[in-house]
Amino acid sequence: MSRITARFAALSLVGAVSLSLAACAPAPASSGDAAASDYCARMVTNSGGLEDRSFNQTSWAGMEQAKTELGIDTQVLVSTSETDLAPNVAQAVDSGCKFVLTVGYELASATEEEAKKNPDVHFAIVDEMVTADNVKPIIFDTAQASFLAGYLAAGATKTGVVATFGGGNQPPVTLFMDGFVDGVKKYNEVHNTSVKALGWDTATQDGLFTGDFEDTTKGKTLAQGLIDQGADIILPVAGQVGEGAAAAALEAGNVSIIWVDNDGWETLPSEYRPIVMTSVMKNTQSAVLEVIETDKAGSFSNDPYVGRLDNGGVDLAPYHDWSEKLPKELQDEVQKVRGDIVSGVIKVSSPSTP
Q: How many Å apart are CA 77 and CA 331, to the nearest integer?
């Protein structure tokens, strides 16, 4: 856990970088000395922008770490709308770099198209599957870690009601939600309790969604509705929209959230720290670094990188302000469940499992 936390500590530096590139803009300013290496890498964000407190931000942290540790030139093209996506991928390829990282399902089509046209360029895409000889998917079995979050939430709730919602009904989102709800079910099974999980039905694969990943007002409104139904712990799987849920929780005064993708205690505004119980983390930063390091060494493979509990690709963040509030017995129990998942004693599955 400490290794993963250290990796994510670098994220606090990302917000200090001013980057406002868009499609068809002039060539982006370099974040490394191009003369220092013949190898260079480019990244294209999805329409959520760079500082999304989600996987654009953590992916760029991995690029920045690659620049520092590998001495390469790294640049990012920031998409602010859907119309930016394909032009930005094309511009990244036109830079002459032989490695292009794209982030999220919105970029799948553009990545696949450019990969076909440029077989000598190596691509990687975060959180999405694209099948091509020169494309490496970077995906995460987040259900494993969110199972732990659901188990923890069921043991920590005071009202007997917890909840989750998503930005859109897509596999990378519903994978979190499946794991969370199944973790609650497991706690109920072990402890003979009846904690309710609102917002997602694993049987029908349907639930509550805001319809986007940027409008925090929608997140606040939806979260408030869940709070009105008694939920005192909420897992928002909606990028920036989740900050609206954090605002609703803070105003309620007796509600906490479990963040996703990165350590929300580190990346959200500091006023939310008291209500962030933990986070379901994808170690995107380390995954991106590993993929670039391997490619630079001449060992590119299109085999997907799959982050799991056993390889540190996913995990729960530290409890931070909650470390003294959560019963030690519950914390120990979550650790045992974690070990049982890694060993295979507990099988965590989802229709969206990578």
A: 41
